[in-house]
């Protein structure tokens, strides 16, 4: 089975075209080397997928005939990413969410500007 199809079948990527683009950009490794989307897999292969800032690693167990539900993914794929790396990723996601919530975006309103002037003691 092609690696881009497999990554889509086991729900690593939402669409097959996303899986193909990641392979073409060098963000997917098969047994330690960057691969093309058409590369064939065999059972026992190690796949590394780059989710910034980490590389998640998976082991191929079996091949599904169609795209599988989230509960059935464990029959076809084993996540072998070390726990320390996953914890680092969780911290990164938490910080990203906090930064996004802090930033409201856009220009300040008149009230925000007045509050800022008062806080900074500008006149």
What do you see in this structure?
The chain is an alpha+beta fold and 123 residues long. The chain has one domain: Roll (Structural Genomics Hypothetical 15.5 Kd Protein In mrcA-pckA Intergenic Region, Chain A), CATH 3.10.290. The chain has four helices and five strands. It has a five-stranded antiparallel beta sheet with strand order 2-1-3-4-5. Helix 1 crosses helix 2. The chain is elongated, with a radius of gyration of 21 Å. The relative contact order is 0.12. The model has no long low-confidence stretch (mean pLDDT 91).
Q: In a few lines, what is going on in this structure?
A:
This protein is α+β, with helices and mostly antiparallel strands and 123 residues long.
Helix/strand structural class? alpha+beta
In the CATH hierarchy, the architecture is: Roll
> How does the overall form come out from the CA principal axes?
elongated
Cross-sheet strand order for the largest sheet: 2-1-3-4-5
The first-level CATH class name = Alpha Beta
**Main sheet record:** 5 strands, antiparallel
Report the average pLDDT across residues. Answer: 91
Q: Which runs of at least 5 residues are low in confidence (pLDDT < 50)?
A: none
Number of domains: 1
- How far apart the termini lie comes to 68 Å
What is the string of helix and strand elements? HHEEEEEHH
**Beta-strand level of the residues, as a percent range?**
15-25%
SS elements, strand count: 5
The helicity comes to 25-40%
CATH fold call: Structural Genomics Hypothetical 15.5 Kd Protein In mrcA-pckA Intergenic Region, Chain A
CATH superfamily: RNA-binding S4 domain
The DSSP helix count reads: 4
Radius of gyration, in Å, reads: 21 Å
